[in-house]
Amino acid sequence: MTNRTLTLAALTAGALVAAAGVGFAATMLVRQSPADTAASPRPVFQSDLGGPFTLVNTAGEQVTEADYLGSYTLYYFGFTFCPDICPTELQVIAAAYDQLPAELQDNLRMVFVTVDPERDSVEAMADYVDLFHPQMEGLTGTLEQTDAAVEAFRVYYVAVNKEQDPDYYLIDHSTFTYLQGPDGNNLLVFPFGLGPDDMAGHLQDVMGS
Ligand code: NI
Fold it and tell me: 26, 80, 141, 150: least surrounded by Cβ within 10 Å?
């Protein structure tokens, strides 16, 4: 497959492009999910992502990567104040999930991890993920804990105007969605811009049926 020839360099280039767009998106309202097209970006096969983490779920319970073994898991990193990119991608993930047959849904978890735990409390995360899907999970923690998860997934983020506006600052961040298998190994990295139909198709290819 040609997908395998793509490298992490391509991922990084995409992250920079996506991050550059975040600032310009600040005044935009939430967009519709991007349409699926023939030019839709493709997922990249990438192992060696993820790893040990300790975070706090929306029930206030401490969880680790071991709690996600045994089923497929989609991880996406962002922040609840995100004006555009995060809501768009979480809508794509939720829509892709809804297209899957029930037996695959039962074997797939959707997890939103914040890079902004100072504002994203357990309560804020619970309210936020509920906006997208009743099955979507949210993870926060101390800054040390979320930064450890960020590092494990090689997520990039930087606050843009935190000093000028400590309450309403924005964060540029990478926008990939990671699919991990039941054994905790990373399988695919979905780029931002992949539509829900394509994401659901790739999930079915990997998960079977
Ligand atoms: Ni975002």
Answer: 26
**Has residue 3 been placed in a domain?**
no
pTM of this structure:
0.81
Q: How far is the CA of 177 from the centre of ligand 1 (A)?
A: 12
The pLDDT tens digits of the residues spanning 139-190 come to 999 999 999 999 999 999 999 988 888 888 999 999 999 999 999 999 999 9
The pLDDT tens digits for 73-89 are 999 999 999 999 999 99
Provide the number of structural domains found in the chain.
Answer: 1
Distance 4 CA to ligand 1 centre (A): 27
Distance 48 CA to ligand 1 centre (A): 23
- What order do you get walking across the sheet with 72-78 strand by strand? 44-45, 186-190, 177-180, 72-78, 108-114, 136-139
Residue 1 lies in a domain: no
Instruction: For residue 94, report the distance from its CA to the centre of ligand 1, in Å.
Output: 16
Contacts of 131 (CB under 8 A, 6+ apart): none
Q: How far is the CA of 209 from the centre of ligand 1 (A)?
A: 32
Q: Hunting for tokens 């280039």 — which residue is that?
A: 13
CATH code, domain carrying 76? 3.40.30.10
